């Protein structure tokens, strides 16, 4: 513990120390407390900003066998698995993924028992009414319900308590060193649940994997997820999993703040128009698949473009088909005028739009299914929802990569126990949420699955930590 100055010992030894304050951490804390353990939650943020990226969520994806009051139909375990396999392109631990999907069926009931309420799905282009459960009041309301339940059960919650060191002796957690203002305090515990998120808000760490282009990325979520706890665990011999460049990355409004812009900066209109780079050139099929299975590829696609900037171009026929961003679209009476406002070459953008329009083959437009409106003789093609951009006024959104969370994390087993380098499990250390998401998400994303990972593995980790402490 050199370099930390004087460290005061907390008077109590807790059964379970939970590091983090979002969905995964709270599910772990509640599960451990309901199993009889004494629990402390260490949240680096203030009370107002508690909850990490969970504050910005809207829904979670769970398997279920029949329609409910808020879900329009069944979503079987096999269909969930097929969706996950498709978006990850096979880069997932099948045993853990299938276990998560199976356990997710119980979460719809369990999480309601913790005070969380659901509502019918929102409108827009997500088309998730059958597969995903939407939180009544959004992520912050969901968090408030979990915190209220945790505190009523006797879980201690300490805010502005950043973990800066971990006392780990040969795969066994002994204590967390917490910074509170100018003080450092040792919090001892019989078991650890690490649920402190990824490292997406640490730009220098992103640069290590992505190179200098990462400095143009925007961070959709909390500025607190700097990867400190993850680095401490990996430095103590915990095995890692995942690629440092793999992450949940979507296209968000380029005018969004550097951090914490949240879900209202995301653009869901890509399927209704075309996307061009700063050379006014298209670079990918905007209508490849339904939006919930493709929206999370667009951050990476934009990251590969010059200056990490792109522009969504559409016309008035599509202006009311999606949930708008926080910022108004750029509008103009002509494509040339629109290009001028975006700083693009007017002739090039006009030619790109004209080429696209000429390639469109009419069909029956339907924003809710894979329709038959497509292009022919155009590279890249647009497979579905292709309509001519020919009805003014014309609109555009500038977009940049918006990073939600990173996939490089700690390897876990089916009990959410951390695995040590060399293959054996840790004695009393568990992980949940974003910092172990790479076990399930080797790449890609399907809407709502981050919350599934957090809640399912959080509950498993909390129960396991409580059993160990007992």
TrEMBL record:
Coiled coil: none annotated. InterPro entries: CobZ, FAD-dep_OxRdtase_2_FAD-bd, FAD-oxidoreductase_2, FAD/NAD-bd_sf, Succ_DH/fumarate_Rdtase_cat_sf. Residues 15-442 form the FAD-dependent oxidoreductase 2 FAD-binding domain. Its cofactor is FAD. SUPFAM superfamilies: FAD/NAD(P)-binding domain, Succinate dehydrogenase/fumarate reductase flavoprotein, catalytic domain. It comes from Bradyrhizobium denitrificans. NCBIfam families: CobZ_N-term (TIGR02485), PRK08274.1 (NF006130). Pfam families: FAD_binding_2 (PF00890). This is FAD-dependent tricarballylate dehydrogenase TcuA. Keywords: FAD, Flavoprotein, Oxidoreductase.
């Amino acid at each position: 513990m050199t370099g930390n100055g004087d460290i005061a010992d907390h008077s109590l030894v807790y059964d379970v120390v939970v590091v983090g304050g979002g969905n995964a951490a709270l599910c772990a804390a509640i599960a451990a407390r309901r199993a009889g353990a004494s629990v402390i939650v260490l949240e680096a943020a203030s009370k107002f900003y508690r909850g990490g990226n969970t504050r910005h969520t809207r829904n979670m994806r769970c398997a279920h066998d029949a329609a409910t009051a808020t879900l329009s139909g069944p979503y079987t375990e096999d269909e969930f698995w097929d969706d996950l396999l498709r978006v990850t392109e096979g880069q997932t631990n099948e045993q853990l993924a299938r276990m998560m999907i199976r356990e997710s069926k119980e979460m719809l009931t369990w999480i309601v028992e913790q005070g969380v309420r659901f509502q019918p799905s929102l409108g827009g282009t997500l088309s998730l009414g059958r597969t995903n459960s939407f939180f009544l009041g959004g992520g912050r309301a969901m968090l408030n319900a979990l915190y209220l339940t945790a505190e009523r059960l006797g879980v201690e919650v300490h805010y502005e308590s950043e973990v800066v060191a971990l006392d780990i002796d040969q795969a066994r957690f002994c204590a967390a060193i917490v910074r509170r203002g100018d003080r450092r305090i040792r919090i001892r515990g019989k078991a650890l649940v690490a649920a402190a998120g990824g490292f997406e808000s640490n730009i220098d760490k992103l640069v290590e994997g992505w190179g200098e282009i990462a400095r143009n990325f925007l961070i959709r979520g909390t500025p607190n997820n700097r990867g400190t706890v993850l680095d401490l665990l990996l430095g103590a011999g915990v095995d890692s999993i995942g690629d440092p460049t793999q992450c949940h990355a979507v296209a968000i409004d380029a005018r969004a703040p550097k951090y914490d812009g949240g879900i209202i900066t995301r653009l869901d209109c890509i399927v209704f128009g075309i996307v061009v780079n700063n050379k006014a050139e298209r670079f990918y099929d905007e209508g490849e698949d339904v939006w919930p299975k493709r929206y999370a590829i667009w951050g990476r696609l934009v990251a590969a473009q010059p200056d990490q900037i792109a522009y969504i171009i559409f016309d008035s026929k599509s202006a009311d088909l999606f949930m708008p961003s926080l910022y108004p679209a750029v509008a103009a009476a002509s494509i040339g005028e629109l290009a001028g406002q975006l700083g693009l070459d007017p002739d090039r953008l006009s030619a790109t739009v004209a080429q696209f329009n000429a390639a469109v083959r009419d069909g029956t437009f339907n924003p809710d299914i894979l329709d038959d409106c497509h292009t022919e003789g155009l590279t890249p093609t647009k497979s579905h929802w292709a309509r001519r951009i020919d009805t003014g006024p014309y609109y555009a959104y500038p977009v940049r990569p918006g990073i939600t969370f990173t996939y490089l994390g700690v390897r876990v087993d089916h009990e959410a126990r951390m695995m040590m380098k060399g293959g054996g499990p840790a004695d009393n250390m568990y992980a949940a949420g974003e910092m172990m998401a790479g076990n399930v998400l080797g790449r890609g994303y399907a809407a709502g699955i981050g919350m599934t990972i957090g809640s399912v593995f959080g509950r498993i980790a909390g129960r396991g930590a409580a059993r160990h402490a007992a």
